[in-house]
Amino acid sequence: MPLTIIIPGVEYYNQKTEEFEYTKDTVLRMEHSLLSITKWEMMYKKPFLATNEKTPDEVLYYYYCMCITPNVSIKVFDGLTIDIVNKIQKYIEDSFTATTFKDQPGQKKSHKIVTNEVIYSWMAQLGIPFECEKWHLSRLMTLINVCSLEQQPPQKMKPHEAMSQQRALNQARRSARGSKG
To answer: Please, is 96 exposed, middle or buried when counting C-beta atoms within 10 Å of its C-beta (0-12, 13-18, 19+)?
Structure first.
């Protein structure tokens, strides 16, 4: 689901012509997607998701990478207001899904650096079509997690859990026999 924003026109000084120039209001459609991250990583040669501290220029370029409106100059992004930036950030942080995950006890957090190529490899391994690269990144990552979980063999019960389940089944059987007679 793309985000639509309107960037108001700006006045800027063109040093070549030594004149002030103006841009018109610009309607942009933007997507926070694997494709956007790929474009950004191609430019900066570092992992987008593992880079917490981005310079203002890096953030601005990511917004440019998110833009799916054709033929937009990066200069248009000079007109971003705080309200527009907040709207973009809210869009980026949205999960766009009802699926949630419980933390599994004893599950270790991965310290693997995730780049666009790693995500593409997960998609290939899980049979997720590459057309999904245009999905909102949170939604794509949720699909990857769901597919990964679905492919895992069922976890074995711990001995005390199995015994507890067996006791409950035995109790239910006794109760069922007692109510019949």
So the answer is: middle
91-137 tens-digit pLDDT: 999 988 888 877 766 666 777 899 999 999 999 999 999 999 999 99
CA 100 to chain centroid, in Å, comes to 14
> Phi-psi bin for 93: left (phi > 0), alpha (psi -120 to 50), beta?
alpha
Distance, CA of 65 to CA of 59 (rounded, Å): 10
Q: What is d(CA 8, CA 132) in angstroms, rounded to the nearest whole number?
A: 31
Name the strand (E) or helix (H) holding 66: helix 56-66
Q: And the tokens for 92?
A: 């980026």
Which residues are bridge partners to 26 per DSSP?
Answer: 7
Between CA 42 and CA 148, with CA 132 as vertex, the angle to 5 degrees is 100
Structure tokens at 90: 């809210």
CA distances (Å), origin 140, targets 52, 122, 136: 20, 11, 6
Confidence (pTM) = 0.74
Q: Which residue has the higher pLDDT, 79 or 108?
A: 79
The strand ranges marked E within the chain are 3-7, 11-14, 19-22, 26-30
